[in-house]
Amino acid sequence: MGGWVYIMASRLRGTLYVGVTSNLVQRVWQHREGVIEGFTKDYGVKLLVYFEQHGTMPLAIQREHNIKHWKRQWKIELIEGLNPKWEDLWRRITR
User: Fold this and answer.
1) pLDDT per residue over 66-82, tens digit each?
2) Distance, CA of 68 to chain centre
3) pTM
4) Which of 36, 45, 75, 77 could lock onto 40 through a cystine, CB 3.0 to 4.6 A?
């Protein structure tokens, strides 16, 4: 089973959250609706600004771990490399 690494944001260049999941649509919905207590709910992190798919969960988990330890500017550059306007990508994954 594959996995997804994703980055959520509170706004353009706002608070960032890096996560990993096997079900991207479900997990992003949970963040958007605030159904799970924690960081993203506390800081209003609801915009999906980046995601990438991996062939296995172990690969996705390793990538998430690596990105989480990056400098903030590197994360911003990753996002802006594919999503320069920081558009909410929710509609892209729910079509």
Assistant:
1) 999 999 999 999 999 99
2) 11
3) 0.96
4) 45
- Cβ–Cβ < 8 Å for 33, 90: no
Question: Cα(75)–Cα(72) distance, rounded to whole angstroms?
Answer: 5
3-state helix/strand/coil string of 20-58: EECCHHHHHHHHHHCCCCCHHHHHCCCEEEEEEEECCHH
Dist CA 76 CA 84 (whole Å): 9
Write out the residue range of the structural domain in which residue 90 sits.
Answer: 3-94
Q: How many structural domains does the chain have?
A: 1
CATH number of the domain residue 32 falls in: 3.40.1440.10
- Measured CA to CA, the distance from residue 20 to residue 65 in angstroms comes to 9
> Which two structure tokens, joined as six digits, stand for 71?
């400098």
Distance between CA 94 and CA 65 in Å, rounded?
26
